[in-house]
Amino acid sequence: xxxxxxxxxxxxxxxxxxxxxxxxxxxxxxxxxxxxxxxxxxxxxxxxxxxxxxxxxxxxxxxxxxxxxxxxxxxxxxxxxxxxxxxxxxxxxxxxxxxxxxxxxxxxxxxxxxxxxxxxxxxxxxxxxxxxxxxxxxxxxxxxxxxxxxxxxxxxxxxxxxxxxxxxxxxxxxxxxxxxxxxxxxxxxxxxxxxxxxxxxxxxxxxxxxxxxxxxxxxxxxxxxxxxxxxxxxxxxxxxxxxxxxxxxxxxxxxxxxxxxxxxxxxxxxxxxxxxxxxxxxxxxxxx
Length: 288
Known about the structure:
By secondary structure, this protein is α/β, with parallel strands linked by helices. 30% of the residues lie in helices and 11% in strands.
């Protein structure tokens, strides 16, 4: 009798197979395989994955050849089965996966260009989101995703009073603007602080800590984000926070999220830690 294996997809972006990121990938593969997962790896550099979002992503005639609009054209191509083979292959992997882990070194406060290209090209409108299905109602809301990355900076450099600023602000565009926008349940990121300037014992401890976390990863509570229901979802209403919700938030000491700060201090660790289990605070849970 055939049984359905859980599937995990690792989208991996590092040029070297002997890097710290490769070691993290290997630990992830080993641990998840031992847990019974079918683990798929998209090694973007090894695949020579094309980062540029161009007309080459569409097979056949364009809907509007006079004004090429990538999002519109790829949406129609997805609907009609006319996306390029490399995008279709990645979408198939993503469709099968219950868990997606993006493994990369932090480049310029973001993902490497080749991974950004994967996000730009694979998360096609229609396949990954629509104007009716976004954020907590997103197409991929049954799946979990997370960022796992190394930095060239120490943890103190990414504090609110550190030279690089608050890591929560750095992560907001990636975690809210891409992953949560497509509906993913976003797990807290795994951040490996400055492995290249850490002694071997410290790097080993980082890998051991990650392996330990992986054992309970799928039981973790996701990060919280402001749900669509608390906004006026119309152009007339400006997609703004509903007045009654804003009124409720006036007495709160912090903003709703890192992005929806409402001119207040940012909620601590909003993009790097899930709220404690059983937390009934409506600001954290964002239920209406």
